[in-house]
User: What shape does this take?
Amino acid sequence: MSNLTFGIIKPDAVRKGVHGSIIQRILDDGFQIRGMKLIHQSRKQAEGFYAVHRERPFFGELTKFMSSAPCIVMVLEKENAVPEWRNLMGATNPAEAEEGTLRKEFASSIGENAVHGSDSVENAAIEISYFFSKLELV
Ligand code: CMP
Assistant: This one.
């Protein structure tokens, strides 16, 4: 599974209509898409996904935002997929994101930052299984 990672095109990006551009950038960067679906998360689903952040002061804001509108969940494949996807996304805070990254181009704030990506191979496996069954992966 080390060649797989999990990503989300967040509600802000879908609302702005830039999800197509982000998917094109993912393909141009050499990722294969193994799973993809448009979902509208419930508050409970978002709270479960971000459970590791439960104690953080921004947890309420984060889960409200993530359940505010549709998003796109994805399973991406590439050699070293976890760091490769993080590189393409750029820093969590768009003010610190480098030129050429998705967050530099599409994110508006640290909370509404266009995309999510797993931070480790272990978490990628957990996050993939949170949204996808094996049958949904090609
Ligand atoms: P993500 O990679 O989806 O994982 C956790 C998210 O919490 C992160 O992206 C940010 O969007 C969000 N986040 C992190 N720090 C803050 C903050 N200080 N205020 C609001 N949201 C934050």
Summary: Residues 4-40+70-136 form a domain with the Alpha-Beta Plaits fold (CATH 3.30.70.141). The two ends are 14 Å apart (CA to CA). The helical segments are 11-16, 19-28, 43-49, 59-66, 81-89, 102-106, 121-131.
